[in-house]
Amino acid sequence: MTYKKEFFLSLYRMMVMIRACEESFVEPIRSGEIRCPVHLYSGQEAIAAGVSANLHHTDKVFGTHRSHGHFLAKGGDLRKLVAEVYCKEGGCSVGRGGSMHLIDPESGFLGSAPIVAGTISLALGAALADRIRGGNTVTVAYFGDGAAGEGVLYEAMNFASLHKLPLLFVCENNFYATHMPIQETRSRKSIFESAEPFDIRSERVDGNDVLAVYEAARRAVTDCREGQGPVFLEFTTYRLRGHVGPDDNIQGDHTDIRPHREVEEWKKKDPIPVFRDYLIHDKMVSKDELDTIDKSVSVEVSKAHDLALGTGNPDPRELAKYVFSKPVS
User: How far apart are CA 264 and CA 269, in angstroms?
Assistant: First the structure.
């Protein structure tokens, strides 16, 4: 498929934006300025960028505990995301949610949650609601390989297939459920085949190749929008940081059990430099243009931190303000 230069630049910019945002949290986490648990998305940017490049503003996305990238790629406000991670009043969840409870209905990002597989059923409900209303939107349910061990995924696949719902199941397989290697939890490594008994079209794709992600998602979104039912995509990838925090060391003990050699091998497949080298080598974009994007994104992220730190914390007296639809008497 032939792409325009602007398309390449937009994909590159989104991945760089996600990476810069994630890495900007590292020092504030270590210094204790950020106090909520933070699951960094570094290394998995190609998936969020490639999938969302196929979505309309009105399409819906549900995330996981590691959803900063999903939020930004769907059009969520960077400044509100950064403020939320600091648990500030100006955050997207008004400082009540922190890193794992993000939401931005205006952009179609309808929520993330730390409960493994917890948002799959919510995405199913959103897709069903759209079908009942006669709409033409697509709903995306992101989840990790650990969620493949939860029964709700299989219940959702069965129901979505029965009713041919416009639901895209997106499994980000980074090969570790927290610190548990996938080979210790599954007799078969491939997850996408789990959709076959439910007559759901599925495929496994290199999640570090942003163009491969884009093409797979394009086919899937087209199927969903044309009423052909749900699609299941498994993207293989790798997180370059710890499960929680920069290096799983925020509580004083280093608990990342991944072999050093394995981590180093995956760093060679880092989706951003791989895509950057591809664009420059094939003379589709100049190095100067990409450098300009890098610098502008860095400034934008820095300003988001300054803005967040300049805003107030939630008032403890308003702890229950958003828990109920009416003020607590």
Answer: 9
User: What CA–CA distances, in Å, run from 151 to 75, 116, 187, 198?
Assistant: 31, 11, 17, 14
Could you identify the residue written with the tokens 């958003």? 322
- Walk along the chain (329 residues) and give the pLDDT tens digit of each residue: 789 999 999 999 999 999 999 999 999 999 999 999 999 999 999 999 999 999 999 999 999 999 999 999 999 999 999 999 999 999 999 999 999 999 999 999 999 999 999 999 999 999 999 999 999 999 999 999 999 999 999 999 999 999 999 999 999 999 999 888 998 988 887 999 999 999 999 999 999 999 999 999 999 999 999 999 999 999 999 999 999 988 876 555 666 788 889 999 999 999 999 999 999 998 899 999 999 999 999 999 999 999 999 999 999 999 888 888 776 66
DSSP letters along 285-326, please? S-HHHHHHHHHHHHHHHHHHHHHHHTSPPPPGGGTTTTTSSS
Whole-model pTM? 0.95
- Cβ 195 vs Cβ 260: under 8 Å: no
Other C-beta atoms closer than 10 Å to the C-beta of 320 total 9
Burial environment of residue 128 by CB neighbours within 10 A (0 to 12, 13 to 18, 19 or more): middle
